[in-house]
Amino acid sequence: MEFSPELFAAVVAAVAFAAGLWYLRARRRQTRTRGGGGRAARGPANLRFTCANCTKQFTHSRRTLLAYEQGARQFFCSACHTRWRGSQSVIQNRTHGPGEMLARRDAHQAKQAQLAEAAKRVQPPAPASAGADAKRGCLGLAALLVAAPVVLGWAALHYF
Question: Residue 23: what pLDDT?
Answer without folding.
Answer: 81
